[in-house]
Amino acid sequence: MNCEEKENVFDEKLLSEIREKFWRIDTDSEGKKRLFFENAGGSLRLKSVTEISDELNKFPDCYAREHKDSKILQRYETQGKEDLRILLNAKDGAIVTDLTASSLMFKITGPMVEFGKGSNIVTSVLEHPSAYDSCRYYASKYGKELRVAPSNRKTGGIDAEEILRLVDKDTLMINVTAASNMTGAMTDLEKISQEARKINPDVFIVTDAVQHAPHGLIDVEKLKLDGINIAPYKFFGNRGISFGYVSDRVKELAHPRIIDDPADIWELGSIVPAHYAALSEIVDYIAWIGSKFIETEETSVGKRALVEEGMRRIHMQEKSLLSGMLYGGKNAEGLLHMKGIDTFFDYSDLENRDLILAMKFDNIGYYEAVREYEKRGIIVFERVAESAFSKRMVESFGLDGIIRVSPLHCNTAEEIDEFLNVTKEISTL
Question: Could you list the residue range(s) of the whole structural domain that residue 60 is in?
């Protein structure tokens, strides 16, 4: 797709079916009309996710028993773990869970730094605080050097070359985001993984995939990752759980656990089958999209293949929506053509971007602009230097803030036009 091509991948019928699967896709909690373009902060929820969660949370039963209802819960747990492996293409290693993706990142990186061989850790300035600060915390605790790659002010991402420039034979871990949660720019993890291991075959490679997971395919086998985290609440699912993975060589490293459990168990305490069931609904939804583009009746297709196709189609649809925001639609002028609007970063290549756009107004500040959007029924978000979650990132770009706009694949071209027309109105205040 070239930068101005805006062909919708989902036809009208399929898009209608997709939209019907989400709660409050165009209304707020009071039933008032609203466009939610802040999915990078917490996405729209699948109806099936909340419904299965509500149903299983009614069970008083413990999953670790032999009676009927307990076995029902066990089946959901087993299927959920299988579906997580399908989603990540994780054929080995261990599953890791925690209450939040931030706590999970600390959980998986600590043992690598403590027991890994090497004297330095490589990360980037664009990391979420949990990834950046876990590197900083464990580097300080275990006397390791912390090396930080800069951002690319043109693309809004991290260049693989900048990461690799910091890697040497003594690098014990690389921790770099799969995609920026501020700009949507993806990181070339495949290149980093391949080239870094030529320098040091034993280096641990970890990625924060919280931002990227709802928008693009993840393949821990292909990337040879040692650790990864995802957050269902940004992936059409619930709050209160994060899922992750560690590789075979990490899973038996000493870590907090119940001593009598097998050494490769990373879950502490009783699991929550409802969370696994909800994850299965997310994976099933992606596979369902994939099934719309693969002739499953004539050919036997595995679930991973359907997930791959589903995520590919989601990414293609989101490229179309992002292109519409930039270049305009049938009834709206694109951001790149609007006077009084600054659209940060180079969006000429949409193939390597998630559906996030960073912008600002010439006539109004970040907070004020976000409130003006809200008055007109559109939810976006300001990322500003005053915030601990934004300061390091925005300042790396030489900025004091951005307005982050993050729709989802279930949004329509008409909704993008509505956003653009509201944006033009605000630019003239």
Answer: 51-283
Runs of H (alpha helix) within 167-257: 189-199, 220-223, 248-251
Query: For residue 402, how far is the Cα from the chain centroid?
Result: 19
Share of the chain above pLDDT 70, in %: 97
DSSP state letter for 234: G
Within 10 A of 363 (CB to CB), how many other CB atoms are there?
A: 12
Mean pLDDT of 1-20: 79
321-343 pLDDT, tens digit per residue, is 999 999 999 899 999 999 999 99
Say if residue 297's pLDDT is above 80: no
Are 342 and 233 part of one and the same domain? no
What is the layout of strands, in order, in the sheet containing 94-98? 94-98, 242-246, 227-230, 204-208, 171-175, 120-124, 145-149
pLDDT digits (tens, 9 = 90+) for 233-265: 999 999 999 999 999 999 999 999 888 889 889
Q: Is the pLDDT of residue 2 over 50?
A: no
Whose tokens are 């005053």? That residue is 386
Task: Please check whether residues 26 and 148 belong to one and the same domain.
Answer: no
- Please check whether residue 247 lies inside any domain of the structure: yes
**Burial class of residue 203 in the structure, from the number of CB atoms within 10 Å of its CB (0-12 exposed, 13-18 middle, 19+ buried):** buried
Backbone angles phi, psi at 247, to 5 degrees: -75, 170
Residue 3 is assigned to a structural domain of this protein: no
pLDDT score, position 10:
95
Q: Quick one: angle between helices 413-427 and 366-375, nearest 10?
A: 120
Q: Region of 200 please: left (phi>0), alpha (psi -120 to 50) or beta.
A: beta
pTM of the model: 0.95
Q: What pairs with residue 427 in β-bridges? A: none
